Fold this sequence. Notes:
Elements: E1 11-12, H1 15-27, E2 32-37, H2 43-55, E3 58-63, H3 83-92, E4 97-99, H4 103-106, H5 125-128, H6 132-147, E5 151-155, H7 159-171, E6 177-181, H8 201-207, H9 209-222, H10 227-241, E7 245-253, E8 269-277, E9 280-287
Parallel strand pairs: 1-4, 2-3, 2-5, 3-4, 5-6
Antiparallel strand pairs: 7-8, 8-9
Amino acid sequence: MVDSVFAPLPIVRTAADLRAKVRRWRAEGERVALVPTMGALHDGHLSLIEAARREAERVVASVFVNPTQFAPHEDFSAYPRQEAEDARLLARVECDLLYAPTVQEMYPVDFATIVSVGEVTETLCGAKRPGHFDGVATVVAKLFNQALPDVAVFGEKDWQQLTMIRRMVRDLDMPVRILGVPTFREADGLAMSSRNRYLTPEERRIAGKLNKALAGAAAYVARGAPAEAASEAAAQALREAGFAKIDYLEVRDAENLAPVKVWDPARPARIFAAAHLGKARLIDNLPIGSP
């Protein structure tokens, strides 16, 4: 089927226009799902839209490269932006509306409020990227207030982010259900990410080894091996494969992200990694035992 059969996707850029659309849908008794993104969409994002369509009659995708979750030395200015292509892809999977606010819309000149979840944000990526999760929590809280969705959909690749959002929604009594969707992967197991385009062809051939190392370590831990030993073996395999730096490779409780020494099958756990390959920082995670 050619793209020309798909009508252009409506785009709104202000919270007022977004709420007006949502009000009309609600007046017709329709449920609303929100899929927050930073754009540069790929099949993983589109799988979130498809999951959202199963949950609600109307689906809103937001595209906003959020400056408050980037540190000064990170890739905010270089982060890929392709709104026209994103809109085309969203139309193909029957998204109903694209919300693409400006930085000024999201953060007026005198903006002064920060949402900080604490605890689950203080480890893993939170320890390596101070302030990152405050930026994520703040923008997601704003998006929830602007769109007022019945359900919001996030990928499990960013498990720590998903855990934080669930905690924020619980703690602040936000009337939105959070749905996590399994990580969408390339044929070699690499988790799909907008930052994968930073990889050179040679680095791309190496990148799939991250998932393989995690899978091997997860199986080792599931058989009763100490988590530290399994994690170090996986980290060494990544170094030998050509990964320049490993921020972390650890087994954690899947719900509160507390460290796990030896896996207890009565408690869900996952193995987490963040590793650098060329210009890309790749993250991934897998469950220990059955998902």
